[in-house]
Amino acid sequence: MKKQSMMLLPLLLLAACGNESGFPLFNQDGDNPIVMNVQDSSNGDPLQFGYTSNTKQEAKDGEGIPGYFIYDRSLLAESIGEMTAMLEDVEEASVLITDDDCLIVYDQGEGMRYDVAEQVYQTALSVLPSYYNIYISDDAALRSDIERFEGNVSLDDAQHNSLDQTIERMKDSPQGH
Fold first, then answer.
1. Which of 125, 144, 147 is nearest to 135 (CA)?
2. The CATH number of the domain where 150 resides is what?
3. May I ask which residue range the UniProt record assigns to the signal sequence (predicted)?
């Protein structure tokens, strides 16, 4: 049994050194790494608190470029949408996240319009980085207006103008702040 274990150990170690689940580490051009949301093995449990402490020297060892965050817009939209839909007086929520804007259209239940708007606004504010502009509306007709931008990476001038017009229409609803 010990011999078999000793023979299997190098194979297991070699297999553990391969990349995750057979996914390629680089895109098809071969020059840019593919960024995936993966659990950090140092934390173990994604529900654990995150903590780090860095000295100036450790920060400089990163070639003078501080680390940066890449926000997954789809994940942000999904999180805000689920949290908003869970509010007592909200029946449905649709969320669009762009580079610096968050647009939320929700169907209101029986609550006071301005109170619900404040709850929706605070929900988005609790998740988003502070530089985001948050626009909310309880006008269900605007849902299709924000839905048409789903999956866009960048906007041409016409689409950007259309988004600006949608934002202006959303401002007719209580904004919650």
1. 125
2. 3.30.300.30
3. 1-22
Strand 133-137's sheet: what is its strand order? 90-97, 101-108, 133-137
Domain that holds residue 137: 73-170
- CA distances, 69 to each of 7, 65, 72, 135 (Å): 43, 13, 9, 23
132 in a structural domain: yes
Calculate ∠ Cα 44-45-51, nearest 5°: 80
Over its length of 177 residues, how does the chain's per-residue pLDDT go in tens digits?
555 555 555 555 555 555 555 545 444 544 444 444 554 545 456 666 677 777 777 766 765 555 566 778 889 999 999 999 999 999 999 999 988 899 999 998 787 999 999 999 999 999 999 999 999 999 999 999 999 888 777 778 888 888 999 999 999 988 887
> Is 52 contained in some domain?
no
Instruction: Kindly report the pTM of this predicted structure.
Output: 0.65
Q: How many domains does the chain have?
A: 1
